[in-house]
Specification:
One of its GO terms (cellular component) is protein-DNA complex. Keywords: DNA-binding, Phosphoprotein, Transcription, Transcription regulation, Two-component regulatory system. This is Phosphate regulon transcriptional regulatory protein PhoB. By secondary structure, the chain is α/β, with parallel strands linked by helices. It has two domains: 130 residues, Rossmann fold (3-Layer(aba) Sandwich); 98 residues, Orthogonal Bundle (Arc Repressor Mutant, subunit A). It has eight helices and twelve strands. The longest helix is centred in the middle third of the chain and has 23 residues. The protein starts with 7 loop residues before the first strand and ends with a strand.
């Protein structure tokens, strides 16, 4: 279903009331019902108890900053997040992407660009959810490692493994096509989206964290293998 047919639920997290007013006006143009909060603790509480289609998250907010909100939310939710901030240092952008933000835009920003990015992020999220629902199997069984796609649950020898949303999506994509090698740019495009061009190291970081959680021996992985000169693949011999 196209997301235009239903009202999108958007949460604005921003402590500058003038910017909040501006964002509310233009996000409503995307057929959205908009809510806003001005601190991180309120944002986290709302986002944990309601499913939003998009969160516009300012980095410098009181009580709990945007990075901390994103990090905590990513432990349980895959809600699309665009970080909005006045900071332009590269380290801030990289940090935002590393902890699971879907996109990043700096102030002052073009409203047209922000709306385009918001629509793109929501479309990618909608497509990813459909892709997960259309996966070849609702459960993948690799002996000790089992992946229940519908429940987003991973177990090893019956023990539940806690994965972040992006780690889970990476695992499902690779495990659905054992032996198929994906380049880092392909994984960025499928899992994160086109706006992440040039941030291939983000894939490496997530793959390393995924391996740390599912591999018996990080030095000799048996599930997620490296295809030298290309990227990564799921072991086709399991």
């Amino acid at each position: 279903m196209d997301f235009y047919l239903m009202a999108n639920q958007i949460l604005i997290v921003e402590d500058d009331l003038e910017i909040v007013d501006l964002l509310e006006i233009h996000m409503k143009d995307l057929n959205a019902e908009v809510e806003s909060v001005n601190d991180g603790l309120s944002a986290l509480e709302k986002a944990q108890h309601k499913d939003y289609d998009l969160i516009l998250l300012d980095l410098s907010i009181p009580k709990l900053n945007g990075v901390e909100v994103c990090r905590e939310l990513r432990k349980t939710k895959n809600t699309p997040i665009i970080m909005v901030t006045a900071k332009t240092e590269e380290i801030d952008k990289v940090l935002g992407l590393e902890i699971g933000a879907d996109d990043y835009i700096t102030k002052p920003f073009s409203i047209r660009e922000l709306k385009a990015r918001a629509k793109a992020v929501m479309r990618r999220s909608d497509a990813a959810n459909q892709q997960t629902g259309d996966s070849k199997s609702t459960e993948l069984d690799f002996g000790d490692l089992k992946v229940n796609i519908e429940m987003r649950r991973v177990t090893i020898e019956g023990k539940k493994i806690d994965l972040s949303p992006k780690e889970f999506d990476l695992l499902v994509l690779l495990a659905n096509y054992p032996g198929r090698s994906y380049s880092r740019s392909e994984l960025l495009d499928v899992i994160w989206g086109y706006n992440f061009s040039g941030y291939e190291h983000t894939v490496n970081s997530h793959i390393n964290r995924l391996r740390a959680k599912i591999e018996p021996d990080m030095g000799n992985p048996i599930y997620i293998l490296t295809t030298w000169g290309i990227g990564y693949r799921f072991n086709e011999d399991i």
